[in-house]
Amino acid sequence: MRRLQKFGSILLVLALCLTMLPVTAGAEEPEAADGWDSRADTGWYEEGGGEDGREFTISTAEELAGLAQLVNGGTDFSGKTITLTADIDLTGREWTPIGKDSISSRFNGTFDGGGHTISGLYINKDVTSDTGSVYLGLFGYVGEGTVKKLTVTGSVIGCDNRTGTSDYYAGGIVGACGGDGDIVNCMADVTVTGNSNGTRTVVGGIVGKNSGEVTGCISKGAVSAKGTGTGNVTANAGGIAGESSYGSIINCCNTGSVIGDSCAGGIAGNSSSSEVTNCYNTGEVSGSGTVGGVVGECSFGNISNCYNTGSVSGSGIVGGVIGLNDSVLSTSVSNCYYLAGSESEDAGTGAGKTQAQFASGEVAWLLQGEQTSQVWGQTRGVDGDRSPVLLCFDPTAKPVYKAVFLNGDEEFAAAYTNPGGTVNLPGGVPTGSDTFLGWFDAETGGTEVTGPITVTGNATYYARFGESASTGGSGEPSYSPALDVGNGGTVRVNPRTPGAGDDVTITVELDKGYEVEEVTVTDRNGDEVEVIDNGDGTFTFEQPRGRVTISVAFRERSAPLPFTDVPEDYWAADAIAWAYTNGYMNGVSAGTFLPGGTISRQQVWMILARLSGENPANMAAARTWAMGNGISDGTTPGGAVTRQQLAALLYRFARLMGYDTTQGGMAIWEFPDVGDISGYAEAAVDWAVSAGIINGTSQGTLNPQGQATRAQFAVMLMRLCQLNRA
User: Fold this and answer.
1) Cα(720)–Cα(726) distance, rounded to whole angstroms?
2) What digits encode the pLDDT tens for the residues 304-348?
3) What number of CA atoms fall less than 13 Å from residue 262's CA on the CB side?
4) What is the DSSP secondary structure assignment for residue 125, as one 8-state letter?
5) What sections of 275-371 are H helices per DSSP?
6) Most CB within 10 Å of its CB: which of 277, 325, 528, 617?
């Protein structure tokens, strides 16, 4: 009976292996029966390696296969450097990893990718006998070596059908990295899949198991570790490393999805006596064991200055940053953050921040903290970064400074901006023991600030109270106004401290795409003061006795539409104007929008890509973006989108961007055709209806199978953006 159970488990694993074919471009199953090792060229090595015999160059797939043959034959390249001088395409043949074990055939040299790409990596390893630990990746085992400045694309598939005690490691670039090994400035867009009927499977986007140092690396591929055995099967998965033991992961990020049956983490599935610092994850993380946005499970070591904005879910222990921190052998976790709502249960160790706080620059400022060198940045503005970025990946990202306004020892308000940016004085008036006089740049003495303030570094401003701000030569008091200025522009006031009866001029400088909605002035009693609009961007009023509050509100400027088929009273005119003004949708011709026309899948991909901050060169690039980010499977690009398909695309996009997708309820059941919604779209339509993105048709139905019109798409897109902004 036990043999039958074991045989059934093996059949299950084999069946799962057959379903785990790679899906990334350039990673097709090889056409040739023989692998690259049959075409190995070692002539470059036999030529001697320059004057000192330590410098080698390779430029072809055959020469790369020659490196694998040499290392697997016992040549470890200790003290030697191999430099890649051209991109290499491995498509068409299966790859044999460079370095097959940790003792006799491991890579101990330096492999310098020179900024080149190795594409089409394909490994599909099915192990049925206990032959020791297995290491899969472009490199199998890196001992005292270094792999740097390299990009790898493709897929690595591992199926472990053994029941012994050996381990199974798979990574997008390296299967396992030893204690003196380094992986530096590498990028992997590799689908890494491990399925185990044995005892231990560890997979990572960059490296399976890390005991060395991984620095400045990015992983974009999907990572999955599944355990199907009936015994104590371990299946750990991490966006960068499936497991880090006595190692370090520094300045790294993951954007791909991670699934792990035992431990799953956006950066590391399991971290033991290791350091994880200055890292972030934006990919979706899920599993049935311990699941964390940054690390699934940890003990000892240190995790600091990290964040996660990817959704985190599972049936076990779930955390926005850490899934499980050992209660006895605990890891020190500090200055870590997660997107509030990204985790399904317990927040773990870390502080939740809203999307607005991420976008404001607050989290970037917190992550930088007291670090002496600039590590984190975030360019503010309409076209800026939505979340913090590492300067090692984007050197153009600007540092973030904080302007804090204190009332006594309490923080009254704070604003964040880039060097040279401006912040307005906070709205509202702080309370104190006397009349509020204004904000000053020193706790005592100093100079009053009257916004907008140009920021050149972190700064603190202090509320001051007294009888009056100052007195003129006549002994009459003068008053510094309080400013309440919204987003969309800046305000200057002249004179800065007017006396009663003085004419005061408010000068408004607009941000691009905004206009003034309203300017109001209220006196110290809350009564409104008459304001004159001079029609040239300035406003004037007469200063009353006592301090006034100047409030300026802005709104986005709407331009007249050039389309003859969208009259001003058309039901979707505002949404079409919004989509057109922001560059998301154009007309089908110079004067025609065709609001009742259909919209294709590829058009939706392109628009969502632009909304995310990308700028695809063409529809093919938009399709690649949509597939790579889990928005669509990329099929029928020219097909017209139905209303339920559009809801599904927007739902996936919202999750990708970290928007709140928790809305749901009974609203969907009020429609008589709710039963017409396809199963795949139920959650998406439920969310869209509950969030107010989709309303019923004029007939009072959802019409989920009906084709979505261009006007309907403009409305749904605008509502989605307004929902996120709220």
Assistant:
1) 10
2) 999 999 999 998 999 999 999 987 888 899 999 999 865 544 445
3) 27
4) E
5) 355-360, 362-368
6) 325
d(CA 61, CA 400): 44
Q: Tokens 């355990």, residue? A: 227
CA of 161: how far to CAs of 20, 128, 462, 630, in Å? 15, 5, 67, 30
pTM for the model: 0.66
The Cα 566–Cα 591 span in angstroms is 10
Q: Which pLDDT value is given to residue 434?
A: 76
The tens digit of pLDDT for each residue in 64-82 reads: 999 999 999 999 999 999 9
CA angle 194, 73, 105 (to 5 degrees): 50
Helix (H, G, I), strand (E, B) or coil at 12: helix
Distances (CA, A) of 80 to 52, 54, 144, 227, 564: 10, 4, 11, 39, 70
Residues 401/362, Cβ–Cβ less than 8 Å: no
Question: How far is 223 from 172, CA to CA, in rounded Å?
Answer: 9
> Residue 343 and residue 558: Cα distance in Å, rounded?
38
Burial 668-700 (b: 16+ CB within 10 A, else e): beebebbeebeeebbebbbbbbbbebbeeeeee
Residue recorded with tokens 């408010």: 506
Backbone φ and ψ for 620, nearest 5 degrees, come out as: -65, -40
CA distances from 588 to 115, 307, 563, 594, 671 (A): 42, 42, 10, 7, 33
Closest CA to 260 of 315, 299, 218: 315
What is the distance between the alpha carbons of residues 218 and 239, in angstroms, rounded to a whole number? 9
The token pair that represents 670 in the structure block: 């009020």
The answer to whether the CB of 191 falls within 8 A of the CB of 226 is no
Half-sphere exposure of 454 toward its Cβ, with a 13 Å CA cutoff?
2
Ranges of residues in the chain with a pLDDT under 50 are: 1-26, 344-347, 468-469, 471-474, 726
